[in-house]
Design goal:
The chain has about 220 residues and is mainly alpha-helical. The protein contains eleven helices and four strands; from the N terminus they run αααααββααααββαα. The structure holds fe (iii) ion. Fe (iii) ion (FE) binds next to loops.
Length: about 220
């Protein structure tokens, strides 16, 4: 996957500092650093804390991974929707009202009995915000970004996911140009379930590929 033209390069400089002190300049608690920045920007009148809170609340709680779960559940329930999603996910999810920051170009990749899909952004943290909300901390970590491509099965094991040896693992590297939504396999024993009930089985991690859906019951 091409990985130039990123829209946010916040982590990239870290790689030029060498192994000895990659993050030595950071205070121990990133939350403190964020709070300090927010305070300074607010005092300078550059940001409105209420607006900031609203944006964070939107992506963390109101959107979260619920939109993505609804998309996956519809794909499970409706073969025509599934086909359309695989053809042009960006258009299909925009039709459902899911678009905006970091959601301009989305590709759906479906797990099958033969193939498991997993998503990473090796350079930073590209992620389909309108479908999954704000990425979890581990998604942005150096360890995940480095290991997901090099040893995906070990990473999956760390997440408690063990796949059959004959199932291929395909890792998709997100960029500013393309972000990915994993459509996990529909759990058995869910025949006739409503879209809403199915959505309740779809976890965030199952849509990144580091988890599997909940099983019924
Ligand atoms: Fe990125």
């Amino acid at each position: 996957m091409p990985h130039d033209h990123h829209d946010h390069h916040d982590h990239h400089d870290d790689h030029t500092h060498g192994e000895d002190h990659p993050h030595a300049h950071l205070p121990p608690d990133p939350a403190l650093r964020v709070r300090a920045l927010e305070t300074i920007l607010t005092r300078k009148g550059l940001i409105d804390p209420a607006a900031l809170d609203a944006i964070i609340d939107t992506y963390q709680n109101r959107i979260g991974p619920k939109n993505g779960a609804l998309v996956v559940a519809r794909a499970w329930a409706d073969p025509e929707f599934h086909a359309a999603l695989m053809r042009d996910a960006t258009a299909v999810v925009a039709d459902m009202g899911f678009f905006g920051r970091q959601g301009e170009h989305i590709t759906a990749v479906a797990n099958t009995p033969q193939t498991h899909n997993m998503v990473v952004c090796t350079l930073c943290s590209c992620y389909p915000w309108p479908l999954l909300g704000i990425p979890p901390g581990w998604y942005k970590s150096d360890a995940y970004r480095a290991r997901a491509v090099r040893e995906p099965r070990k990473v999956l094991a760390d997440f408690g996911v063990t796949l059959p040896g004959d199932k291929a693992v395909r890792v998709w590297d997100s960029t500013a140009e393309m972000r990915y939504l994993v459509v996990p396999e529909r759990p058995e024993g869910t025949e006739g379930w409503s879209v809403e009930a199915l959505a309740g089985l779809v976890t965030r991690d199952s849509m990144i590929g580091t988890g599997l859906p909940r099983q019924p019951g």
